[in-house]
Design a protein that fits this description.
The complex is a heterodimer. Chain A folds into 2 domains: 112 residues, NAD(P)-binding Rossmann-like Domain (Rossmann fold), CATH 3.40.50.720; 173 residues, 2-Layer Sandwich (Dihydrodipicolinate Reductase, domain 2), CATH 3.30.360. Helices cover 36% and strands 26% of the residues of chain A. Chain A is built from 11 helices and 14 strands. In chain A, the strands form 3 sheets. In chain A, strands 11-10-6-9-8-7-14 form a 7-stranded mixed beta sheet. In chain A, strands 2-1-3-4-5 form a 5-stranded parallel beta sheet, sandwiched between helices. In chain A, 52% of the residues are buried. Chain B is α/β, with parallel strands linked by helices. Chain B folds into 2 domains: 139 residues, 3-Layer(aba) Sandwich (Rossmann fold), CATH 3.40.50; 180 residues, 2-Layer Sandwich (Dihydrodipicolinate Reductase, domain 2). In chain B, 35% of the residues lie in helices and 28% in strands. Chain B contains 11 helices and 15 strands. In chain B, the strands form 3 sheets. Chain B has a 7-stranded mixed beta sheet. In chain B, strands 3-2-1-4-5-6 form a 6-stranded parallel beta sheet, sandwiched between helices.
């Protein structure tokens, strides 16, 4: 049995990971720690798992650690686990600074542990299918991608710059950048961005549009806005429109949906698709057992973060930012 | 009875022919184009005669001339028509260059004729209803937009002029100008634009293909994403689709012609189109626009979309093309 501890439970994605860890036959949850004991108490009650007051004690009793703390704590918790020889599955973004991210990669290497990024969308069946379509060449050479990762404005620590590292750009750039780097086997070389506080009166940006140049001479745009209103029947989306020389491909990763009109529960969409998080957690265990790099690695986390950070720089300077590889 | 002449009998000449023949009190008297076959087709549709440009422009009975020729020929024809005291209903874009457009507007003014430019998207029910909803405050102050317009490459152009950047300006000038124009009516003036286009990519893959993405910043701070495509595979069942999404501080509204339609037809026919999705309506948007233009001519009033508005839309497209070439954001003020 592979025992997984949850270090920090600020990000609600953590709830989903706990559910999946509990449901897989080869994994179990050791328990949960959070520097805010009310959060760990709530999670402990919700899932019937042990609450730890000492992060080291949780780490010592676990084989792997899931870090779902606030973004700015990722490095501290991930490195604590790694330095104690534990494998780490880290929530996105990897960190809030490039320096933190590089340090985490170094620490993982020194301790020879698996360092996986939680980029669950890469495990989505539609994305896996798209990879096959692209590799078989049915679309020809990909020329352009327009992508969205919309969501609702999350509030809480997500809009506290010190804890999150930024707003919509920091929150919603990395998923899609990760997918595209993998699908097209290309790096992001040029980043232009426009963003702003357009909808809400909050301390960070809620809307953003990125325009990126790729190493294979294609280009892509990404709408990372927290622009789904409260009245929207779903939390948001991940969509791609890929245009190739021989064909085009559209993805709406969360559109495996039923439209529900309930007098009791209102109007909502029920997703019946496979859980991406299940495949993500399974990959964590498999990569540890098989002693190999995970599909979504810490390096992928760093590259995605660099794009988000370059977007902020471009927004400030109104110039395209060049990324070296 | 207002008498009309149509110059240019390609795809748009045919669309204008159909629109005019659906209107009361208007009569197409003559049509002209470089293609005998296409001219005959428009003459048949309008029960008019196949004619020549010179005959149309010197016919004293003809009050209005529709210009439906390739973009880079608009200036010469519009200037000539204006000097012959014809009111002009010109297909979009107004012209290929800003210099041409400024001259066209000036010559029309000097000769006391009206110039209308067919930014027809404003007259599509889906777009006009969205606009009135937004004006009624249904989604609060509008701060963001996503526009898509595209499909297969338009191979029907005379001598394939759509593929010549110097003639058509590519998707950003020929196609996305519809969305730029509509966005202006919702979000106001543009401050700057950042774009990428396949046509301007160093490794551009040959002919008959363009695809572009524009990130637009408006002077009021709002943002828009505009995507235009002539890159869908030729045999794709959907030949052309449009969609939009407007985000306001109090909600959002969306439309997608691929998802929101009232009739779908699939046939075994090999002829275009063997598959279609559409929403038939009493109002043909082209007819609606032409009708309003004719009313403006009769009552000597401001036309629905005049040359100056068309110039503002053109400037956005020109800035977009400049950004696609340089890879840098271009301010609209730089386009002079």
């Amino acid at each position: 049995m592979f025992r997984i501890g949850v270090l920090g439970i600020a990000h609600t994605h953590g709830y989903s990971y706990i559910r999946q860890i509990k449901s897989l036959s080869e994994t179990s949850v050791t328990g949960v720690f959070d520097h805010d004991s009310s959060k760990s108490a709530k999670t402990s009650t919700l899932f019937g798992i042990e609450r730890f007051d000492d992060p080291l004690e949780l780490i010592e009793n676990s084989d792997g650690i899931v870090v779902t703390s606030e973004n700015s704590f990722h490095r501290q918790y991930a490195e604590l686990a790694m330095n104690n020889g534990k494998h780490v599955l880290c929530e996105k973004p990897i960190a809030t600074t490039e320096e933190d991210a590089r340090s985490m990669l170094q620490t993982a290497r020194e301790n020879n542990v698996v360092f996986q990024m939680a980029f669950p969308v890469r495990y989505a069946p539609a994305i896996q299918q798209a990879k096959k379509e692209i590799e078989t060449g049915t679309l020809g050479r990909i020329l352009s991608v327009s992508a969205t990762n919309h969501g609702r404005m999350p509030g809480g620590w997500f809009i506290d710059q010190k804890l999150s590292g930024g707003g919509a750009v920091m929150d919603h750039t990395v998923h899609v950048v990760d997918i595209i780097r993998w699908l097209l086997d290309a790096e992001i070389e040029k980043v232009s961005a426009e963003y702003g506080r357009l909808i809400y009166d909050i301390p960070v940006e809620d809307c953003g549009l990125l325009l990126l140049g790729l190493s294979n001479d294609s280009f892509m745009s990404l709408d990372c806005s927290w622009s789904r209103p409260e009245a929207y029947p779903y939390w948001g989306d991940v969509t791609l429109n890929l245009v190739g020389t021989e064909g085009s491909l559209k993805i709406s990763a969360f559109d495996a949906k039923l439209r529900v009109f309930s007098n009791k529960r209102g109007v909502f969409w029920e997703n019946f698709g496979d859980s991406f998080d299940r495949a993500l957690v399974k990959e964590f265990v498999d990569s540890v057992v098989e002693k190999r790099d995970p599909l979504t690695s810490g390096e992928d986390g760093l590259e995605a973060l660099r794009v988000a950070l370059a977007a902020y720089k471009s927004g400030r300077t109104h110039e395209p930012i060049q990324l070296n590889h | 009875m207002t008498k009309v002449g149509i110059i240019g009998c390609g795809m748009m000449g045919k669309v204008h022919s159909i629109a005019y023949s659906g209107l009361q009190d208007v009569n197409v008297k003559a049509v002209a184009s470089l293609s005998r076959e296409r001219t005959m087709e428009c003459a048949r549709l309008t029960s008019s005669k196949a004619s020549t440009v010179e005959e149309i422009l010197t016919d004293d009975e003809i009050e209005i001339v529709s210009i439906c020729t390739p973009t880079d020929t608009h200036r010469d024809l519009v200037v000539e028509a204006a000097r012959n005291r014809k009111h002009i209903f010109c297909e979009k874009p107004i012209s290929r260059t800003l210099k041409d457009a400024l001259e066209m507007v000036e010559v029309c003014k000097q000769n006391g004729v009206l110039l209308g430019v067919d930014h027809v998207v404003r007259f599509f029910d889906s777009y006009s209803r969205a606009k009135s909803l937004m004006e009624d405050g249904a989604i609060g102050t509008v701060v963001m937009a996503r526009m898509y317009r595209g499909g297969v490459f338009p191979k029907h152009g005379w001598n394939n002029w759509f593929d010549e950047l110097a003639r058509s300006g590519g998707v950003l000038l020929d196609l996305s100008i519809h969305d730029f124009d509509f966005l202006r009516t919702v979000l106001g003036e543009v401050e700057s634009i950042t774009t990428r286009s396949v046509k301007n990519t160093p490794s551009h893959p040959g002919r008959n293909r363009d695809h572009a993405i524009a990130v637009v910043k408006f002077t009021n701070g709002s943002l828009a994403h505009v995507e235009g495509s002539w890159a869908e595979p030729e045999n794709a069942p959907s030949k052309f689709t449009t969609s939009f999404e407007f985000v306001g501080r109090d909600g959002m509204l969306t439309y997608d012609s691929d998802e929101d339609f009232t009739i779908r037809v699939q046939t075994a026919s090999k002829d275009f189109p063997s598959f279609s999705k559409s929403t038939p309506a009493a109002n043909d948007p082209y007819g609606l626009h032409i009708q309003k233009f004719i009313k403006a001519v009769r009552e000597e009033r401001k036309v629905p979309v005049d040359g100056n508005e068309a110039i503002e839309a053109l400037k956005i497209s020109l800035a977009a093309n400049r950004s696609a070439e340089s890879g840098r954001p271009v301010k609209l003020l730089e386009v002079v």
